[in-house]
Specification:
Elements (H helix, E strand, L loop, with lengths): L2 H16 L3 H14 L2 H15 L3 H4 L2 H8 L4 H7 L4 H8 L2 H10 L13 H17 L16 E7 L2 E6 L3 E6 L4 E7 L3 E6 L3 E6 L4 E5 L5 E5 L6 E7 L4 E6 L4 E5 L5 E5 L8 E6 L12 E6 L4 E5 L1
Antiparallel strand pairs: 1-2, 2-3, 3-4, 5-6, 6-7, 7-8, 9-10, 10-11, 11-12, 13-14, 14-15
Helix pairs in contact: 8-9
InterPro entries: F-box-like_dom_sf, F-box_dom, FBXW2, WD40/YVTN_repeat-like_dom_sf, WD40_PAC1, WD40_repeat_CS, WD40_repeat_dom_sf, WD40_rpt
Pfam family, one: WD40
Protein name: FBXW2 protein
């Protein structure tokens, strides 16, 4: 059939087809399909797939797509990101979805972050970290060799680790290299805290001592507790040292002289942690910027004004 005749025939068939009822149209199509060969059926299959499989993330307004995505769990969303570049782009930009996923993991949400991809990245990083923790692959481990008895006390600060041991010594390590920077003879250490110049130790011998790193000399000795000292803290600005002990007390000392300034009672168990810090919130007893002392035993935490 010539092209001109075919086009005229096709127009007449189209007009006749449009005049049919739905049932008649279906019967007509069934008949044409039965007469079709492999080439026609393949052509029909390819075109029907395009017509019937609509990409709703492309067709719907972005706000409506975001609303629908909120009903999917994060793992399903990550699977959906693999469908196409368009799906990945839309799903990754759905900030509310990923913020909610991060909240469910315990993250605090900062609404000032403008990057629409930020919270998805945070979620993926957190999930990877959790998997590494589960598989025991989260940390690179190494051993610091040097003590000859039990290491009971640890304190980490700015890439340095101090260890206190039953071998009557304390050591300062560079964590990145594993090298021992200082090693000094002390007493048995139950607690340690340090800065660049000095080390403060709490001991099972019921005392607290201050040591000089460079010479290893004991510069101050604090006596008064009747039980092991499990925690120490100090502040050079205030010239104060505090200690918590198995004798249920907290003692406040003059750091420079070793004089006991106060003994705080009230705990009914070993005091295992003391902390000196500035108050960050306003309360009936304290204002932001005031120094406070926190002490903890097995059952309670006490807050005192310094």
């Amino acid at each position: 059939m010539e092209k001109k005749d075919f086009e005229a025939w096709l127009d007449n068939i189209s007009i006749a087809f449009l005049s049919l009822t739905d049932l008649q149209k279906n019967e007509t199509l069934d008949h044409l399909i039965s007469l079709s060969g492999a080439v026609q059926l393949r052509h029909l299959s390819n075109n029907l797939e395009i017509l019937l499989k609509r990409d709703f993330l492309k067709l719907l307004p972005l706000e409506l797509s975001f609303y629908l995505l909120k009903w999917l769990d994060p793992q399903t969303l990550l699977t959906c990101c693999l469908v196409s570049k368009q799906w990945n782009k839309v799903i990754s930009a759905c900030t509310e979805v990923w913020q909610t996923a991060c909240k469910n993991l315990g993250w605090q949400i900062d609404d000032s972050v403008q990057d629409p991809l930020h919270w998805k990245k945070v979620y993926l990083k957190a999930i990877l970290r959790m998997k590494q923790l589960k598989d025991h692959e989260a940390f690179e481990t190494s051993s610091l060799i040097g003590h000859s008895a039990r290491v009971y006390a640890l304190y980490y600060k700015d890439g340095l680790l101090c260890t206190g041991s039953d071998d009557l010594s304390a050591k300062l390590w560079d964590v990145s290299t594993g090298q021992c920077i200082y090693g000094i003879q002390t007493h048995t250490c139950a607690a340690v805290k340090f800065d660049e110049q000095k080390l403060v130790t709490g001991s099972f011998d019921n005392t607290v001592a201050c040591w000089e790193w460079s010479s290893g000399a004991k510069t101050q000795h604090f006596r008064g507790h009747t039980g092991a000292v499990f925690s120490v803290d100090y502040n050079d600005e205030l010239d104060i040292l505090v200690s918590g002990s198995a004798d249920f007390t907290v003692k406040v000392w003059a750091l420079s002289t070793g004089t006991c300034l106060n003994t705080l009672t009230g705990h009914t168990e070993w005091v295992t942690k003391v902390v000196l810090q500035k108050c960050k919130v306003k309360s009936l007893m304290h204002s932001p910027g005031d120094y406070i002392l926190l002490s903890a035993d097995k059952y309670e935490i006490k807050v005192c004004t310094i």
